[in-house]
Structures are given as structure tokens and as C-alpha cells.
Amino acid sequence: MATKTKKVLIVYAHQSAGSFSAAAKDAAVKVLTAQGCTVEVSDLYAMKFKATATAEDITGEPKNAEHFRYAEETKLAWEEGKLSADITEEQRKVTEADLIIFQFPMYWFSLPAILKGWFDRVLTLGFAYSHDKRYSHGIFKDKKTVLSFTTGSHESMFSATGINGDMNVTLWPLQNGILHYCGFQVLAPQIFWAPSHVASQARSTMLEEWRKRLPLLLGEEPLTFTPMDCFDVEKGFQLKPEVHEKNATKEFGLTVGIHLGKRLPPNNQMKCGV
Asked: E strands, the chain, where?
């Protein structure tokens, strides 16, 4: 029986084809295609993708125009097939993908607005998450994803003693609050540290390391997050006492976010198995 061809979606957010981000995206397309994957690219700037979440994302009249509530309105529109065509197309790509690579330059310790808009508009309530289906019970638990991005600062600046602070803390809202929230298996990020501030040979080395990693992505183990079953729904999703007790004598907290007032586990958002 033939194995199913793996599908990869690259959501790419950079304005310039001459950028390092473009080179990283092109490397991913080439390597993964050569490996036999079907690769699709959403080039957000080329697509002129709309970043703002508005009532225009729904075709026809909203249920409550006077008090427009985006999450509820788009959930209804998704159920009724009334989301705008650009959102529907991106949702198709997400549904079909086994792996999603987000390729972007880090802006202000976060995402470029056009990519944040992709998350805001594409990951609608109902399609990407619901009250019952999120985190380890999430809708996309069979899909893998990875953040691949450039920084403007050197690695030393994003350390626990550096001026920018710990990159693990910076990544928590993105990897836990968006990706893991929707159930994705989040792979360790691919970080290209300050490519615009290093020699061309160093940039070449960065790209070569990415090329070596790419064929292994689909088989990688994801980062560690605390499962939903460890929390008491009846008590406001608080960590269950038995889980708390089990970890009481440990040196580190469970994760960057659920740290129990302890030291943060080193590289919890950067390396698998931490």
C-alpha cells in the first residue's frame, strides 16, 4: 500500500524576495519537495492578505450588526459557508496540511501584523478551536507546526541574563497561546539569530542547518505542554492538587507559563523534551 503524500503549508510573511526569510522559505520548498512532500506557500504580502478582522470577513449580513462580535459571527459564518473567500482558502490549506511552517521576521518580540492577521482571521472559532476542543484536546492535534524566524538581536540578548530577556518567555504566547491552544504539535522553533548582523558565511551556515533539519521535521517530537487533564474544569481550570503535589519538590516549574512560582524550566519553548 502506497504511503500518503505529506502536505506542507508554508505561511510566509516578508516583503522582499531578497531577504533571508525568503531564502529560508525557498530552502524549505526545495528540500521538502525533493523529499516527496506536496508544498504550498501562502505568500501573505504578495497576496495582499488583509490583516484586520472585520465584518467584511462575512458574506451577507451579520446576525447582530449593532454589537458585532467577531468570534461568534465568524463561527456562524463558518458553519453556514459564509466566510470570505480568502479565509476559506487558507482554512482549506490548513485542513489539508500535515505540517505548517510559519516563516517570518520577528517584529517587536512578536509577529508582523500581516501574519498576526492571518492567525486572527483564519483560526476562527469552530474551525480551529472550541470550548471543548483546545490545548491537548485541540482540533489540530494530528498536525505539526514550527515557527521559523529571524531576529534583529543576537542570541546573547535573548538569554535569561540578556537585555531582551529569555526567548522562551517571548515564545510562550505564540507557541502556547496560539498554536498549542488550537491543538497543534509544536516543534522546536528554528531561530535565525540576527542574520543581518553577521557575515555571509554565518548566514550560509544557518541555512545549511535548516536544510539538514527540514527532512526530519515530520518525524520530530513536539515541545512539552501540560495536558488539559491536569487541570480541574470545575475550579476554573486550575492545576489539580495531585499534579501540584507531584511537582512540589521539583526544582523547576512545569512550563514557562505554568511555573508554580518556581524557576522556569530551561529551554522549555526551545527544545523538545524539556
From this structure: 7-12, 38-43, 99-105, 144-150, 185-186, 190-192, 231-232, 238-239
Torsion of CA 205, 206, 209, 211, to 10 degrees: -100
C-alpha cell at 187: 516543534
In the chain, DSSP finds a helix count (H) and a strand count (E) of 8, 8
pLDDT digit string (tens) for 60-83? 999 998 899 999 999 999 999 999
* 189-210 residue pLDDT tens: 999 999 999 999 999 999 999 9
Q: Tell me: the pLDDT tens digits for 21-57?
A: 999 999 999 999 999 999 999 999 999 999 999 999 9
Q: How far is CA 109 from CA 26, 83, 106, 261, in A?
A: 24, 31, 6, 24
Instruction: Give Cα 246 to chain centroid, integer Å.
Output: 30
Q: Which residue has the cell 538581536?
A: 153
Is the whole model's pTM more than 0.85, yes or no? Answer: yes
Instruction: Tell me how far apart the alpha carbons of residues 107 and 113 are, in angstroms, rounded to a whole number.
Output: 8
